[in-house]
């Protein structure tokens, strides 16, 4: 069946069933973070890039490797450092002394799933090379354009501590990420379960089963595009984004990219739930993660004691939810 999925559309029920199997398999490696995994897979189905910002040791790299294995995608990891050059990401032409010719050596950006580890540790020029590829889905080397493989997904990580020696991403570049996710610490029970699994398998590596492949994943993403969204829900999305621009204490609100992200993510969530139509809860599912890196607060906010999270929650809470038949 999988060999034919590149040329045909799979059903919504197939997307839902496969999504559940994919998440169940990834959860064998990443313990107790089902909601986080669902939101990340939503972004994958919605053809979006993901920024994961959290403390060290919370399975950010493990999550990326697990999804690539379960989805049957090619995987490359780029460790961002202050001396990393754009060519280290994109590749370039290298002179072959034996042949007397220049040969193209493609960089790690040429993969289905690319993990950009600690992206804020590289200088702006190197960050720009990565972000340009994310936006254009292509790389230009010596005047020649090379298309990146499809699907092409970037999972970038940032460490919210140890700011020394970092180059924070400008807001305009953060906007390229569809969502910003946080893993969070596991509960005591989840951490104990993680230990139990480790001592039972007697090795660090978690062996995961491949559930799908590139062709089927592309077919699933095409099916997501068929999910119906009512005009009232589309207006609800626009109202949320508009409210983020007029809210108290907000200096810069979410861009139109946020509206498009909410549209695509809500469709993906509906398909994962087995529905061919969007409901307001699908929009709310990832609204916080769409807004958190796109809203800038006024400098005087410290006087009120409010935080960005509280402002985002207020925006979502104060927009009336449409009733859908």
Give an overview of the whole structure.
The protein is an alpha/beta fold. It folds into 2 domains: 2-217, 3-Layer(aba) Sandwich (Rossmann fold); 227-318, Magnesium chelatase subunit I, C-Terminal domain (Helicase, Ruva Protein, domain 3, Orthogonal Bundle). The chain is 44% helix and 15% strand. The strands form 4 sheets. Strands 2-5-8-1-9 form a 5-stranded parallel beta sheet. It has a two-stranded antiparallel ribbon with strand order 3-4. It has a two-stranded antiparallel ribbon with strand order 6-7. A hairpin with a 2-residue loop joins strand 6 (138-141) and strand 7.
Distance between the amino and carboxyl termini: 36 Å
Give the total of beta strands.
11
CATH topology tier name of the largest domain: Rossmann fold
Mean pLDDT: 89
User: What form results from the Cα inertia axes?
Assistant: globular
Give the radius of gyration.
21 Å
Classification by helices and strands:
alpha/beta
Strand content: 5-15%
Strands in their spatial order, largest beta sheet: 2-5-8-1-9
CATH class of the largest domain: Alpha Beta
Report the CATH architecture of the largest domain: 3-Layer(aba) Sandwich
Largest sheet: 5 strands, parallel
Number of helices: 12
Q: H/E element string?
A: HHEHEHEEEHEEEHEHHHEHHEH
Show unreliable segments. 1-6
> Oligomerization state of this entry?
single chain
Percent helix? 40-55%
């Amino acid at each position: 069946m999988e060999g034919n999925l590149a040329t045909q559309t799979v059903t919504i029920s197939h997307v839902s069933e496969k999504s559940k199997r994919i998440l169940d398999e990834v959860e064998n490696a990443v313990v107790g973070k089902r909601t986080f995994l669902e939101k990340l897979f939503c972004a994958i189905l919605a053809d979006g890039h993901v920024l994961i910002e959290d403390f060290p040791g919370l399975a950010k790299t493990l999550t990326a490797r697990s999804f690539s294995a379960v989805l049957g995608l090619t995987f490359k990891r780029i460790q961002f450092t202050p001396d990393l050059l754009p060519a280290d990401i994109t590749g370039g032409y290298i002179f072959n002394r034996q042949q007397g010719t220049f040969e193209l050596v493609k960089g790690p950006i040429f993969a289905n799933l690319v993990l950009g580890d600690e992206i804020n540790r590289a200088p702006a020029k190197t960050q720009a090379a990565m972000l340009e590829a994310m936006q254009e889905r292509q790389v230009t080397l010596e005047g020649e354009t090379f298309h990146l493989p499809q699907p092409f997904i970037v999972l970038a990580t940032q460490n919210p501590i140890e700011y020394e020696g970092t180059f924070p991403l400008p807001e305009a570049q953060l906007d390229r990420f569809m969502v910003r996710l946080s893993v969070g610490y596991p509960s005591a029970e989840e951490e104990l379960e993680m230990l139990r699994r480790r001592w039972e398998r007697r090795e660090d590596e978690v062996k995961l089963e491949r559930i799908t492949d590139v062709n089927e994943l592309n077919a699933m993403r095409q099916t997501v595009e068929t999910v119906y969204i009512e005009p009232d829900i589309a207006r609800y999305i626009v109202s949320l984004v508009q409210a983020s621009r007029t809210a108290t204490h907000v200096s810069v609100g979410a861009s139109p990219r946020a509206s498009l992200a909410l549209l695509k993510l809500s469709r993906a969530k509906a398909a994962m739930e087995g529905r061919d139509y969007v409901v307001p809860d699908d929009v709310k599912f990832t609204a916080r993660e769409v807004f958190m890196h796109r809203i800038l607060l006024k400098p005087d906010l410290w006087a009120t004691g409010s935080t960005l999270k509280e402002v985002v929650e207020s925006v979502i809470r104060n927009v009336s939810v449409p009733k859908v038949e």
